[in-house]
From TrEMBL, chain B:
GO cellular component, one term: plasma membrane
Compartment annotation: Cell membrane
Record-annotated membrane-spanning stretches: 92-112, 118-137, 149-168, 197-216, 237-263, 275-294, 306-325
Protein name: Iron ABC transporter permease
Source species, domain of life: Bacteria
Signal peptide region: none
Lineage, top ranks: Bacteria, Bacillati, Actinomycetota, Actinomycetes, Micromonosporales
Coiled-coil ranges from the UniProt annotation: none
Pfam family, one: FecCD
Biological process according to GO: siderophore-iron import into cell
Gene3D superfamilies membership: ABC transporter involved in vitamin B12 uptake, BtuC (1.10.3470.10)
Keywords: Cell membrane, Membrane, Transmembrane, Transmembrane helix, Transport
């Protein structure tokens, strides 16, 4: 599945965040977007995911203009995990994850065995099967985050856009989520995630998009993008990049 | 997980409670009529006194009670979901005030002196006020989102309230008639009125069912709802139209009846969780039952007089809601 943005202009009311940004998401790969706070990562992800309508330019999904496609059809192919979803009260984990099946259902349609299987698989993949009966509002931040990931998984889309999927998670669960995203990629899905942890981005991504002030400043394989010069430039923080002794991936270390 | 079987069980319970309420409404009153005799009067029309009371008085009253109770409860669910406000009910979107303004205008300016005429003015007033609230909210930044809906509703409610009290305070004759409507009652309604209300109820209920899944998604936030493939402006518009039609028809017919729209959705959610495909039908059943039981209670509470259903709903509803709050966490929209 090819997803790309061409000359995107997007923002909020009088504030223009993205101004003529072009970006291509490589199909079947794991892409990570990095950049400082407020540089427009979420805005880009929301535009690519059809949550925000661009004022100029267009998002193309397999060559078709995304914002002209029927929303339900898009939701069957493209799953989005927003940065800050609302937690409704009185909804159990299983019920919430089941809402991820909505794009595949009609209002007159019964719950199908296929839906049941998708929800069960999503609960297992996000490691929350044992939480299924708990009300979501009673969960910890990290447990909730995994519930949202499970909802996006239950949607069973070819492409998955996730805004900071590892926030609130402890190190073990962060790694687990990243490995899950790698498995999805290995299964042929296109995965895009916004991450703040540069070393995780460098280690797990196939493709890195570095942003600053609403622009894409570099794209490419981790070792091409995660360099001393670029990281110092993008984050305004002097840092060294060494090679990870275990994986060979670039490792960013702020200079003392 | 609350299984479908358990939730289906609550729906069945709702049906049984409603059947009991209907039976009570047909049999209990200043002239008690045994159930067998009441059913007989329905099936075999005869000229006996009991048969006449059942057919001419109790049946229309019961039908109107069913319609108004179900409509107010379902509209309450919709308005609570639209505004993400667990306290939302008919007043919040300015719909009650719109209906009241219509009725006051009918009496004061058009000389309409019968309930049959007031109904249409009330419905028109409710529709105009509700549409105004929604259109004003739709033009704001958050596009008919929870906050702008609640704020413009509150503004319209306050403004129309001032108009109503202004007219009533200088026009005592209008107040004399208006007070019969504003107390909130289902007594003295005719079968024709019940029939006039039915299409509005049907439209509102169908729209509510159609938007149920969209409302489930909206509860997760606008972005999540869009991500699940919903056109959120359309979901909000359809749900608002349903709420306006249901509330407008109910309030025009029975006057502003408090508490059904507020308490019933909470009770329903406490029983079956927050998914609208369960909450909506259960609310319709329980709303109808609550209003009928309140009406029956009003008939026997101080014979030979009657207390209007609108007064009793508040009296009955308050302790029920308090009990639910104590028993379980309240579950909001
Ligand atoms: N709903 C909104 N209304 C107005 N301005 C917004 C809105 N959301 C974001 N912005 C602004 O747009 C700019 C880009 O925000 P965005 O959320 O895309 O940043 P981000 O890169 O995702 O940051 P973070 O790492 O903090 O999540 C910021 O200046 C922000 O203040
Ligand atoms: Mg962000």
């Amino acid at each position: 599945m090819r997803l790309e943005g061409r000359d995107l202009v997007a923002g909020y009311e009088e504030r223009t965040v993205l101004d003529g940004l072009s970006v291509a998401v490589p199909p079947g790969r794991f892409t990570v977007i990095i950049g400082p706070n407020a540089c427009g990562k979420s805005t880009l992800l929301r535009t690519l995911g059809r949550l925000l309508k661009p004022r100029g330019g267009s998002v193309l999904l397999d060559g078709a203009v995304l914002h002209d496609l029927p929303p339900r059809e898009v939701a069957q192919r493209l799953g989005v995990l927003p940065q800050a979803p609302l937690v409704p009260e009185g909804v159990t984990v299983a019920d919430l994850v089941a809402r991820g099946r909505q794009p595949h259902q009609r209002w007159w349609q019964q719950w199908s065995p296929g839906d049941q299987a998708a929800v069960a698989a999503a609960l297992a993949d996000a490691d929350i099967a044992e939480l299924a009966a708990r009300p979501v509002e009673e969960l910890s931040g990290g447990q909730r985050q995994r519930v949202w990931i499970a909802m996006a998984l239950a949607q069973q889309t070819e492409a998955l856009l996730l805004d900071e999927p590892t926030t609130y998670l402890d190190l073990a669960h962060q790694v687990e989520v990243l490995r899950l995203l790698e498995r999805l990629r290995d299964g042929g899905r296109t995965v895009v995630a916004v991450l703040h942890e540069l070393n995780q981005a460098a280690r797990h991504a196939d493709h890195v998009i570095a942003m600053k002030d609403g622009r894409v400043v570099a794209t490419g394989a981790p070792h091409e993008v995660v360099t001393e010069q670029l990281m110092t430039d993008v984050f305004g923080l002097a840092c060294a990049v060494v090679t990870c002794p275990l994986t060979g991936a670039p490792l960013v270390i702020p200079r003392p | 997980m609350r299984g479908a079987a358990k939730r289906g069980g609550y729906l069945l319970l709702g049906v049984l409670v409603l059947l009991a309420a209907v039976a009570a409404s047909l049999t209990i009153g200043s002239r008690p009529i045994p159930l067998g005799e009441a059913l007989d009067a329905l099936l075999h029309p005869s000229a006996g006194e009991a048969a006449l009371i059942v057919r001419e008085l109790r049946v229309p009253r019961t039908l109107v009670g069913l319609e108004v109770g179900a409509a107010l409860a379902v509209a309450g669910v919709l308005m609570q979901a639209l505004t993400r406000n667990p306290l939302a009910e008919a007043r919040v979107l300015g719909i009650s005030a719109g209906a009241a303004t219509g009725v006051v205008a009918a009496i004061a300016f058009f000389g309409v002196a019968s309930l049959a005429g007031w109904i249409w003015f009330g419905l028109a007033g409710a529709a105009l006020a509700g549409a105004l609230v929604f259109l004003v909210a739709a033009r704001t930044r958050d596009g008919s989102g929870p906050v702008s809906l609640a704020l413009s509703g509150a503004a319209i409610d306050a403004g129309l309230g001032a108009v109503i009290y202004g007219i009533l305070s200088i026009d005592a004759a209008t107040f004399e008639q208006y007070r019969f409507w504003v107390v909130g009652s289902i007594a003295g309604r005719t079968p024709a009125m019940a029939g006039q209300m039915a299409p509005f109820l049907a439209i509102g209920l169908v729209l509510a069912v159609v938007t149920a899944r969209g409302l489930d998604a909206l509860a997760l936030g606008d972005d999540a709802a869009r991500g699940l493939g919903h056109r959120i402006q359309r979901v909000r518009l359809l749900a608002a139209v349903a709420a306006i039609v249901l509330t407008g028809a109910a309030v025009a017919l029975a006057g502003p009846i408090a508490f059904v729209g507020l308490a019933v959705p909470h009770a329903a959610r406490a029983l079956v969780g927050a998914a609208h495909r369960w909450v909506l039908p259960l609310s319709a059943l329980l709303g109808a039952a609550l209003l009928l039981l309140a009406d029956v209670l009003g008939r026997v509470i101080s014979p030979p007089g009657e207390v209007a259903a609108g007064v009793v709903t508040a009296l009955v509803g308050a302790p029920v809601l308090l009990w639910l709050v104590r028993r379980a966490r309240t579950v909001t929209a």
